[in-house]
Design brief:
Blueprint lengths: L7 E4 L7 H14 L3 E4 L3 E3 L9 E7 L5 H15 L2 E4 L10
Parallel strand pairs: 1-2, 2-5
Antiparallel strand pairs: 3-4
Helix pairs in contact: 1-2
């Protein structure tokens, strides 16, 4: 996987579609010809968030989505399949607990 993305598919992660759910879908995206997955925010967000754009901790991957271990497993599987990951971060969208 070199150069610019050829084909990007945006994925909205939430409590009903986590890192492990996405990992199970990776072969499907590869068959579609997707080169990169563009993930919605993955950092810790306000309790009950459905979009994770209301981040409160930019140093921790969301436990709701599968935490650091879940993300590492997803990233490894993407690498094995030749899929790139693009992460959405919006530093001006935060919440205060």
């Amino acid at each position: 996987m070199k150069g610019l993305p050829d084909s990007i598919y945006r994925v909205q992660l939430n409590s009903g579609f986590t890192f492990s759910d996405l990992e199970e879908s990776l072969p499907y995206f590869r068959r579609l010809g997707v080169s990169h997955l563009y993930l919605s925010p993955i950092m810790e967000a306000a309790k009950g968030s459905t979009h994770f754009y209301n981040t409160y901790d930019f140093t921790a991957i969301s436990s709701v989505l599968g935490g650091e271990n879940g993300f590492e497993a997803l990233a490894l599987r993407c690498q094995q399949l030749g899929l790139g990951l693009i992460l959405d971060i919006v530093p001006n969208h935060m919440t205060i607990l």
